[in-house]
Design brief:
The protein has 15 helices and 15 strands. It has a 6-stranded mixed beta sheet. The protein has a 6-stranded parallel beta sheet with strand order 10-11-12-13-14-15. Strand 8 and strand 9 form a beta hairpin. Helix 3 crosses helix 4, helix 7 packs parallel to helix 9 and helix 10 packs across helix 14.
């Protein structure tokens, strides 16, 4: 596989002094006609290439957001360099192959006979006095440019290096002077792209509204928009569009190409994480689509489940959690929310997390969220699950006594139609550690709650009908209890037994 696409190659016969002395072949790329966001970002990068105070430009963003399209368009539009290379580094880079190709382009005679260090020295000598542009795409880990023989460009040398990666820390490791994040598409640009891929059928009055909902579930991610658009191209049956929307909302990945082209591509970023961070990431799949998640709440749950460790003081839990969230943000797998101290997950990244969770053999994550959910899971589903989220659903009843030997987390937040919990509901949940009943319509607690001997966090925020919480005093391992905005007027005497309680 070629490791270098050349816009301008040096003639080996002699020195080149202008563009005509090079092979002027543009890299094939996706046209951006009619868009606003991407061309503006291209112009921004081009302006930095002319800025004498910036030598190395880092470009990062989630998989499928258009980084490669961006840097290819930059490469095709820029000029004024003695040498230009566009190099796809990839997850398993062949640095020797890259170095060999650069040596050949520079006309270094006998480069095949040189060792890696000698060849690097030869490349260095050829380039140190020249003006070059090196674009490194799909970089997964930092490395030293001198390994290739490329001189680190000084700010006054006018040579430039552009790095495109999914990870901000890779750009930092390669000493980028400025880092630009490639964001998802503007709504208007996304619609234009979707119409282009799906065809004019989406403009039909009977289809357009549903098509726009389908597009919204793509979250502005170009790769997802193209994949879904192609799968639905020229489909004039309204029923097919409703089915596609339902499939996307269920995060099943069953639309043609969604799994192989989108979810598996995003999963490469997940695979790059360390195991502890992977476990924290998977926990985020429990939250509904577009959920704003408070960093403190998330950090405490991670800690109580043992997903983050080495916390000497409970007051340091959020700091430890925020550090993990920062890793996920740097990998573009998590986003900042609208306000301080909250985060959110991109819709398609959440789909990827749910897809990973559903494909695992171990006791699974069971996530069914949103007002479209009217029935609780079947009893055999409860038995297999390790974590269950039924947040913000239309469920108004729960099974009488589910058998849940593996269940660690149960999230029932936002089920306002749920006014009663069966008396034996918690009887067979011995392992349960986190129970979230925030914003439910419950007015009382079942006696079986006292059987949750391993429960460490219990949330009743905004349970406005709940007044009697005496049974909570039997939960001796409880560390976190939220009674804010409940009808509890005074704490019962049984709370004196909560010797491990740290947050109330």
């Amino acid at each position: 596989m070629d490791v270098i696409d050349h816009k301008f190659r040096r003639n080996y016969d002699g020195e080149a002094s202008n563009r005509e002395d090079y092979l002027a072949t543009q890299i094939p790329t996706i046209p951006l006609d009619g868009q606003e966001g991407a061309p503006a970002m291209i112009q921004r990068v081009l302006s930095y290439l002319q800025d004498g105070t910036i030598a190395i430009i880092g470009i990062y963003g989630m998989g499928g957001v258009g980084k490669t399209t961006l840097v290819k368009n930059v490469f095709n539009q820029v000029g004024g360099f003695d040498y230009m290379w566009f190099i796809t580094v990839s997850k398993e880079p062949n640095y020797q192959g890259i170095q060999t190709s650069i040596s050949r382009d520079l006309g270094i005679s006998g480069y095949e006979c040189y060792g890696t260090e000698e060849r690097a020295e030869q490349v260095f000598q050829r380039l140190k006095e020249r003006k070059y542009l090196l674009i490194l795409d799909d970089v997964w880990s930092g490395f030293q440019l001198h390994e290739l023989g490329i001189p680190n460009p000084a700010r006054d040398s006018l040579s430039k290096v552009v790095i495109a990666s999914r990870f901000l820390d890779v750009c930092d490791a390669m000493e980028a002077d400025i880092c630009l994040k490639v964001e998802v598409m503007f709504e208007d640009d996304a619609w234009k792209l979707f119409v282009e891929e799906a065809g004019s059928v989406v403009l039909q009055p009977s289809i357009e509204e549903i098509a726009r909902e389908v597009l919204r579930d793509c979250g502005g991610l170009p790769l997802a928009i193209r994949t879904v658009g192609k799968a639905m191209r020229d489909k004039g049956d309204v029923g097919l569009w409703r089915s596609a929307l339902r499939t996307l909302q269920e995060s099943s990945g069953e639309i043609a190409g969604m799994k192989s082209e989108v979810l598996e591509s995003l999963k490469l970023s997940f695979d790059h994480l360390d195991d502890a961070t992977k476990n924290c990431f998977m926990y985020l799949s429990l939250f509904p689509e577009n959920e704003i998640i408070f960093t403190y709440f998330l950090s405490v749950n991670w800690y109580l489940e043992g997903l983050i460790a080495d916390v000497g003081d409970f007051n340091e839990v959020e700091n430890k959690g925020v550090a993990v969230m920062s890793k996920l943000k740097d990998a573009c797998l998590l986003e900042s929310g609208n306000y301080a101290r909250n985060v959110r997950m991109h819709d398609v990244v959440r789909d990827m997390a749910l897809w990973i969770a559903s494909s695992r053999d171990e006791p699974m994550f069971l996530t069914r969220t949103g007002p479209g959910v009217h029935e609780p899971p079947e009893e055999e589903e409860w038995e297999k699950a390790k974590r269950i989220s039924l947040m913000r659903t239309s469920i108004d009843r729960l099974p009488e006594k589910p058998i849940c030997p593996h269940l660690l987390t149960l999230m029932l937040e936002g089920n306002q139609r749920l006014t009663r919990i069966p008396s034996d509901f918690f009887q067979s949940m011995d392992a349960l550690q986190i129970l979230n009943l925030n914003r439910t319509g419950i007015a009382s607690l079942p006696s079986s709650l006292s059987s949750l001997k391993n429960l460490r966090a219990l949330y009743f925020y905004a349970c406005k009908m709940l007044e009697d919480v005496e049974v909570v005093g039997h939960l001796h391992n409880l560390q976190v209890l939220d009674l804010y905005l409940t009808a509890v007027k005074e704490l019962p005497e049984s709370f004196l037994n909560l010797q491990n309680l740290k947050i109330l």
